Structure formats: structure tokens, C-alpha cells
Amino acid sequence: MMQALDLVPIWTAILAVGVFLYVALDGFDLGVGMLYNFAPDRQARGLVMNSIAPIWDGNETWLILGGVGLLAAFPVAFAIIIPAVYFPILLMLLALIFRGVAFEFRYRDAERHTFWDRGFAAGSALAAFAQGIVLGAFIQGFHVEGRHFVGSSFDCFTPFSIFTGIALMFGYGLLGAGWLIIKTDGALQDWARRLGLYCLVGTAIAIAVVSIWTPLADAHIAARWFSFPHVVWLAPVPLITAALVLYAWHALRTASEYGPFAAGLGLFVMSYLGIAISLWPMIVPRHFTLHQAAASPSTQAFLLVGTLILLPIVLLYTGWSYWVFRGKVRGDIGYH
Amino acid sequence: MHLDPEFLSRLQFAWVVGWHILLPAFTVGLASFIAFLEGVYALTRRDVFLHLSQFWLRIFAVSFGMGVVTGIVMPFQFGTNWSRLSDAAGNVISPLLAYEGLTAFFLEATFLGVLLFGRKLVPPAMHFVAAVLVAAGTLSSSFWIIATNSWMQTPVGYAIVDGLFYPKDWSAILFSPSLPYRLAHTVSAFYVTTAFVVLGVGAYTVRRGQSPAEGRMMLRLSLWFLAIFVPVQIVLGDLQGLNTLEYQPAKLAAIEGLWDGGRGVPASIIGWPDQEQERNLAEIAVPRLGSLYLTHAWNGEVKGLKDFPPDQRAPVAIVYFTFRIMVGIGLLMLATVLAGFYLLWRGRLDDTPWYLKLCQVTVCLGFIAVLAGWTTTEVGRQPWTIYGLMRTADSVSPSLTGADVLLSFVLYVIVYLVIFPVGISVMLRFVWRGPAASEEAEPIESGHPKSPIEALSPTIAGRAS
């Protein structure tokens, strides 16, 4: 019964949502980590860190689910993409280790707290940068023979991927600023708004450059966007993106508390959509479509049954924990 | 010098998983212990249980955080270094890993946040439920990861088409022949490891005399627990050995250092297995004893290493010695528990300094035994990743050069050598400060109140609550 059903679209949707949730959730807390470096004083740093203390490892769990979800739904894509981005993945993992332990060590290892402060900020920045490189390398595609990546482990470092690395740092910074605006008030919130503006400018420039760079570098992507009638159907994507940039600018400069974060998320949705439109229906660009890379139907069905039950539960209690820790961040709840 | 990407990838995997396994070895047991303490506190309202729960929760937070970040590394190793294994076996093992994430990681991460930071924000009953859910998460995680490992050790329920594994029977895959024994032996090992840590910390606390009630309680709780679980663990180990004899005879022969199989085989007590000469040097062995404990019959038949071609044998010496280290530690543990019970019976447990000092040393025993046992089962599986079906040499990512892996390995070594010593010293500091330290002023807090960020304006704190 289940075998007759084509589950690939469902798994594509689940994986897309899972990866997006990772990018949105860990995105804002990596962004908070980067902004942490610029916090005015020790008390502000404490508040900034406590704004994400109860939720960061839940956010990071989506990374495992994204990675393992890719392995489960599209095993050959996992087996090609991950070794192809060997060093960015390594840097990301090491950066996340440093950043994760800094939460605890910063208070407990008091004589070296400056080291762990820097480790927290630098780890967040490096993790964001490495993820951006993975994204850039993915868009550019890999050297594949048969079912394996056969290029060099350094192929992924190109001007384009370095650029997307920097771009993602700005994007995460924007999300982080949006989060801090929600979780703080007074002078600290003003500070977050100011940094949010810088990050918005960086993000907007980055989106524009990538939007011009990719069609220039890849004729398929150019044809996808600019041939008639696609150009008509797809015109709303850049238009909505531009409108979101303007709205974010406005929200950062007025008293709006949720506007900047919502606009930042909106920009991520649009960029994500843009990349999906450019690459559809490939999961390993130019080599494997979603269907060609899909796991065996039995694998998809076996995992889908549990996922359909468990994922809503996970979302429910994750939502509940955000509810418990809602409101402005307090000095008495968090790491001490 | 020729750098072999396969060998270096194996070293790297051993390095990252070796450090990582120390954390679940501790946190799986500790999560259950904390849930137990919270539960007993809810029932009895005795302060000693609250103090102990708060004390161990602080240590749990550090070790769990380290477990999370070193754990994220693990699934990515499958992709970065073992991509051919991922491609070939992804259809079978990936749902098990995904279920681990879905059932365990989110549960642990979410409710640990509530457990650590939510004492003021959720009702006490919910706080206890959070403790139980974190413990349930760690156990669920153990199940799925051991299920994955057990399938790779004793694969069943699959079909191979064009070199790729396809699932045929999920319940067979999930409950592969070695799963029940491996799961029981591993989880029990984790519990015993934690109990020896609690025993050692309790002994230290009693010796210091600062929180005598908490110290005595830790000594007694852990001794009673160990009195049951150390013997159980020895029996479970024997059962897993019998299972290995049936399903992985080449591994068992390496464990035993048995070159010539047959009926009535000897038991090698100690010696030096020489893989080239196919015999043990300077060996002390007991005739026929091997058959007796392996098959429970004097004349039982056991296969020797020579029954398998040389390219299907594990590195014998490593497996042979790590197994003996594990068994030796098991006997030491048993002696420690027996001595403790003798002292408890004579009413001298709390004022026998040599024994309390001994207990402090035994803190490390469980960790060494876990590492030794894990090495035995994993190195004993060589030269296979999927036992008898897929070789380790055919599992490694084809694109990697030796230099690539050397570089990544060196970076993992450096980072782990920074974070583990700091993490251990941070946890030791909690122990030095003691269970009752700094809790009196504000008993509902999970950390000490002299934080650098306590001086917040009351308006901010007030508005959020």
C-alpha cells in the first residue's frame, strides 16, 4: 500500500522544512553569538548570552536532523555532498564545539572568561561562515563520477563560496539582532537595532550580488529565471524580497519589536525559495534529481510513519519551551 | 611517508567517538539518578535530596553540553570520512539514526533547558516530569544508536542489490541478534560508571565533612545500586560473549587469543598474541577451561583464528588486551563493592579513610572499562564495517587524501585537548565546592547566586514574570 505511493515529494518537503528550521533557529543564535562580541559591557554580554541559553542546544539539534534527514531521504546525495565539503564541515563542527562549551565555561572557568568570550563569538562567526561556504559550494555543484564525489577536498573554496560565507554571517547577524530586539529593552535594544541596520545592509547587498552572480555563472539558472514566461511567474520573488528589505529598514528604525525578526526570517524564506527555484529538481546539482537520489521506498515509508507522529510532538514541546522562556530576558534565569 | 586515508580516518573516528562515549557513559546514568532524586524529593521533601539534585544537575549541565557538541560531530563522520558506507548502507541505518534525533535529542535538549533554567517558571511537578523526560531521552538515544551498531555487527533483514543494502524486514533490522545483549550490557555499564562517580564523590564529601548528610547519602545510594548492578553487569557480559561466539566467531577467537580451534580448548589468561607467528608468546593458559565457559561444556567446540583467512582477522593483540582490561576492572569493581558492604555492615563505612580514598580512585574505573569494552567490540569487528559483508577499506570516502585526513585529525586532537581538560576541571570545581554550597540563600536556584548579571533593574525582572 505505502510502497505504491510516491513519498519523495513528502520527504522533500520535510527535509526542506527541517533545514529551514535549522537555518532560522540556529541562525538567530549564531547571529546572537557574533553580535555578543560587540556588546558594550560585561552585564550586557551576560544578558545577550542568557537570551539564548535555554534554547541553543535544541536549535542545534535541527542540524543533526538536517544531516541525518538528508542521509535518510537522499543517501547518495549525503554521500556526495558531505565529503565534497569536508573542510567547511570540519570547521563548522569545531566552531560549534567551541561555541557550545563556551556557554558553560564562560562562568565556570572564570580566570579564562575572556578566552571563552572570544571563543563564543569567534565560534559563532566561523560556524556561520563555514555554513555559507557549504551553501555556495552546493549551488556551484560538485565533481561527481558515478555515485561518488571525486574532486579535491579544497574544490569547495571558491570566490563565490567565500562570498556566500560572508553573506550568511550578515544574514545570521540580522536574525540575531532581531531576536535581541525582542528579548531586551532600553539601551541594549537600541544597540541591537544599530547593529541590525549594519547587518541588513550587508544582507541586502549579499542577496543582490548572489542574484546577479549565479545566473551569470550558470546558463541553466539564467534560463530558469529570465526566459518567458518564467520571468513573469517568478517576478514576485525579487519584488517581495526588495519590499522585505525596505520593511526591515523601517522596523529597525522605529519601535517595532517583532518586525525586524519577522522581516529577517522573511528574507531567509525568499532567499531559500530563490535557491530552490534555481536548482529544482536537483539535490546534487547537475547530477542527481530528488527522485534519482531518493532512499528505497521501504526506507522512506518506515521513517515517515514515525516522523509524522513525532515531528508534530517535537514542534509542540519546542514551542512550549519557547513559551516558558518568553518575554524579556531576566538576569536570574540562565547561566550563572 | 605514505599517509593512508583509511587508517587516518579510523584513527580520527576512534578519537572523536572515544571522547564522546565518555559523556553518555556518564550522563545516561546521571540523568536517571537526577530524575530519581527529584522524585524522592517530591515524595519525602527532605532537603538532602534537593541539595543532591541541584548539585548533580550543575555537573550534568556541563557534561551534557559537551556531549551534545561532541555528538553532533558523529553523524557527520559518516558523510565526511565514510561516504561509501553511507551510500551503501544508508537505506538501512539512516532511519535508525534519524529516529534517535526525533525521539531523543529534541526531548533532551528541550527539557534540559526547563530543568536547568525553569525551576522558577514551571510548577514543581512539571520540573520532575522534565527530569524524567531528559532521562527517557538519554535511554532512547542509547537504544537507537546501539540498534544501529548492532545491525552493523550482526546484519540481518537486508538484501544486497548492485552493492547497495536494501531493507527487507525492519523488525529484524531493529532487533538484530546482538541487540538485546549489547544494549543491556552497554546501558548497565553506563549506570555502573555513573554510580562509581557518585560513590567517589560521596566518599570525598564525607572525608571533607562539609556536607556530611549529602555525602553519606551518596555513599549508601551508590553502594546499594552497585551491589545489584555490578553482578548483573558481569552476567550480561557473559551473555554478550556467548552471543559473539555464535554470530561473530572470528571476533571471539581474537578476544580469547585462540589460534587453534577445536574441542576442549584452553583459556588464555595472559600472554602476547603474535599475529605474524599465529601463536601467543609467554602465555599462561588453563586447559579446557575455554570450552567450559564459552560453551558451558568441557568438550564444547570453539573456532580458532586459523579457521579464518588472515585477511578476515581483527588486530588480535588490541582486542585481547582491551578485553582483559575490561574484565579485570569488573573484578576490581566487585571487590570494591564487597569491601564497602562489609564496612557498612560493621558500621564503619563513613570513618574508614583508606576505603574512602579507594572510592575516590574508583571514579575512573567505569570510564576505562567502557572505553576498553567499546574498543574490544569495535576493533574486534575489523576488518569489516558491516560484519562479513562490507570491508572498512571499501567504506572510506574516495575523494580523501591522507593529507586531508591528517589535517582534520590534528585539528580534532587540538580542540578536544582544550575542551576536555577544561570541562573536567570545571566539574571538579563543583565537587570541591560541595553539594550544600551556596544553596542556602536561594534554594530554588540551580546555580550560585553571585552571578555577574544579578544586578538587573527590578523593572526588567518584574515585567517578565
Biggest sheet overview of chain A: 2 strands, antiparallel
Average pLDDT reading of chain A: 89
Count the DSSP helices of chain B. 14
Instruction: Report the structural category of chain A.
Output: mainly alpha
N→C terminal distance of chain A: 55 Å
Low-confidence stretches of chain A: none
Number of domains of chain A: 1
The topology string of helices and strands of chain A comes to HHHHHHEEHHHHHHEEHH
Radius of gyration of chain B: 24 Å
Low-confidence stretches of chain B: 438-465
Give a quick rundown of the structure:
The complex is a heterodimer of chains A (about 325) and B (about 475). With about 325 residues, chain A is an all-alpha fold.
Layout of helices and strands:
The complex is a heterodimer of chains A (336) and B (465).
Chain A: H1 8-36, H2 42-50, H3 56-73, H4 75-84, H5 86-108, H6 113-140, E1 144-145, E2 148-149, H7 159-183, H8 186-217, H9 219-226, H10 230-234, H11 236-253, H12 259-279, E3 282-284, E4 288-289, H13 290-293, H14 297-324
Antiparallel strand pairs in A: 1-2, 3-4
Helix pairs in contact in A: 1-3, 1-6, 1-7, 3-4, 5-6, 6-7, 7-8, 7-12, 8-9, 8-11, 8-12, 11-12
Chain B: H1 5-44, H2 47-80, H3 83-117, H4 124-153, E1 158-161, E2 164-167, H5 170-174, H6 179-208, H7 212-247, H8 249-256, E3 262-263, E4 267-274, E5 279-286, H9 289-295, E6 301-302, H10 316-345, H11 353-361, H12 365-381, E7 384-386, E8 390-391, H13 402-433, H14 458-464
Antiparallel strand pairs in B: 1-2, 3-6, 4-5, 7-8
Helix pairs in contact in B: 1-2, 1-4, 1-6, 1-12, 1-13, 2-3, 2-7, 2-13, 3-4, 4-6, 6-7, 6-11, 6-12, 7-8, 7-10, 8-10, 8-12, 10-12
